[in-house]
Specification:
Elements (H helix, E strand, L loop, with lengths): L1 E6 L1 H4 L10 H12 L3 E6 L2 H13 L4 H23 L11 H9 L4 E3 L8 H11 L4 E6 L20 E3 H7 L15 H10 L3 E5 L4 H8 L5 E4 L1
Parallel strand pairs: 1-2, 1-4, 2-3, 4-6, 5-7
Antiparallel strand pairs: 6-7
Helix pairs in contact: 3-4, 6-8
Length: 226
């Protein structure tokens, strides 16, 4: 079984002054690889990316430039994860599709940051899941699934145990699309999930073991039905 895991930057890189701890996800990936899974990772930009994007925007940078800055930071984060995983990781971080195909051919854990302006690392995760023929895409966030509204702001918000791509598009209709402000899934990510019929789970990734539960098929988070 092949599985693509999008690790939120908010989980691994929550602030600029914290000591980043990748050990939980390193242990998880090593365990999955030892159990015979094909493992593909996308690492988000987190707070470091948002800091640089806000600074660039303050000095008048256009949105494509801000996107490119976010991509660069996410790729640096991916390099950190690759270093932490050691010899089981692909030794280079793909920045285009030719690189990606070469990385997949190594049989090692492929790790991506961003790829191109105009799409989030969630869209990159969709592309990676599609390209690697993953059976499952696990998207980690800091909440335990998809809600009718932001549960951190609305205590009455209801969590979906299952939702279609069309329903999710309506839920996210008013979400931001600027660099550093992408919603749970941007329109590109939704289209990829739908066209390739990739089963996707949105879970709380602050505990890496939740990813293992999602892969095992436990009732956790929200399942997006393509």
């Amino acid at each position: 079984m092949n599985v693509t895991i999008k690790i939120s930057g908010h989980i691994l890189f929550p602030s600029l002054d914290s000591q980043y701890d990748l050990s939980g996800y390193v242990d998880l990936v090593r365990r999955l690889k030892a159990d015979g899974y094909g493992v593909y990772l996308v690492v988000g930009g987190g707070e470091p990316a948002r800091y640089y994007i806000k600074t660039a925007r303050r000095y008048g940078a256009d949105e494509s430039t801000c996107d490119q800055i976010g991509i660069t930071v996410a790729c640096l984060n991916a390099k950190l994860m690759a270093a932490a995983l050691g010899d089981i990781a692909c030794p280079f971080i793909p920045t285009n599709f030719d690189d990606l195909d070469r990385a997949i051919a190594t049989g090692k854990v492929v790790i991506l940051g961003g790829l191109q302006p105009g799409q989030s690392t969630n869209a990159v995760a969709g592309v990676l899941a599609e390209r690697s023929r993953s059976d499952l895409l696990v998207n980690t966030t800091t909440v335990d699934g998809v809600y009718t509204n932001d549960p951190r702001k609305d205590p009455s918000a209801r969590r979906f145990s299952e939702i279609t791509t069309e329903e999710l598009a309506k839920v996210l209709d008013n979400a931001g699309t600027k660099a550093g402000e992408y919603a749970l899934l941007d329109p590109v990510a939704l289209k990829i999930i739908k066209r390739s019929k990739i089963t996707t789970k949105i879970i709380d990734g602050r505990d890496p073991m939740n990813v293992l539960s999602a892969i095992r098929g436990d009732a956790i988070g929200t399942t997006i039905v393509p």
